[in-house]
From TrEMBL:
The keyword Membrane applies. The chain crosses the membrane at residues 41-59, 71-90, 110-141, 161-179. It comes from Nitratireductor aestuarii. Keywords: Membrane, Transmembrane, Transmembrane helix. Residues 3-187 form the NnrU domain. It is a multi-pass membrane protein. It comes from the Bacteria. Signal peptide: none annotated. It is found in: Membrane. The keyword Transmembrane helix applies. One of its GO terms (cellular component) is membrane. The lineage of its organism: Bacteria, Pseudomonadati, Pseudomonadota, Alphaproteobacteria, Hyphomicrobiales. This is Nitrate reductase.
Length: 190
């Protein structure tokens, strides 16, 4: 479990610098340049992600059950996950979704965390999905206090359409194939 926790600390820690240490982040950028900051951010994120994946895999070998969700929660999870990938795609497209929601990736991350907590009840699940859920909520609140996102241009409807289509296609690929390939568990059940 310690590998998973270390991975979460690194991954969520580097993703929290704007929340807890915006001055440090800006000072590092001013002193060493934006490329140095982006490289540091990327390396720490990747190391954290590798540790999360490895630690979660280790924790699944000897699971500690915190709660046992009803089987029906899988259906609700599938439903809650449907908008997640379109929201992730919309975060990179200056359409009406991004203009209206401001932070679609964080909203998608919140849905992802809730959905996975509904269907999974081990300690590793609570740490992983709950930790990322709490982080996303804090980051969303922090971003709201920083003010609205400026798109730089008027929203474009075709950006929303492409986000929705791409997101639904990725969702279907994950549900029917990739989730089981990557994580050894089919979201559709056994």
């Amino acid at each position: 479990m310690s590998v998973l926790i270390l991975g979460l600390v690194l991954f969520l820690g580097i993703h929290s610098t704007r929340i807890v240490a915006p001055g440090f982040r800006q000072q590092l950028i001013d002193q060493r340049g934006e490329k140095f900051w982006k490289l540091t951010y990327t390396v720490v994120s990747l190391v954290g992600l590798v540790l999360i994946i490895w630690g979660y895999g280790l924790a699944r070998q000897d699971p500690v059950i915190v709660y046992d969700p009803p089987v029906g929660m899988r259906h609700l999870t599938l439903l809650l996950m449907l908008p997640v990938f379109p929201l992730f795609a919309a975060s990179h497209n200056p359409g009406f979704i991004k203009a209206k929601l401001q932070h679609p990736m964080l909203i998608g991350t919140l849905l992802w965390g809730v959905a996975h907590l509904l269907a999974n009840g081990t300690l590793a699940d609570v740490l992983l999905f709950g930790g990322i859920l709490v982080w996303a909520a804090i980051d969303l609140i922090s971003n709201v206090y920083r003010g609205p996102v400026r798109l730089g241009r008027e929203p474009v409807l075709r950006k929303d359409i492409s986000s929705i289509v791409a997101g639904v296609v990725i969702y279907l690929i994950f549900v029917f194939w990739l989730h089981e390939l990557l994580f050894g568990v089919s979201p559709l059940g056994a």
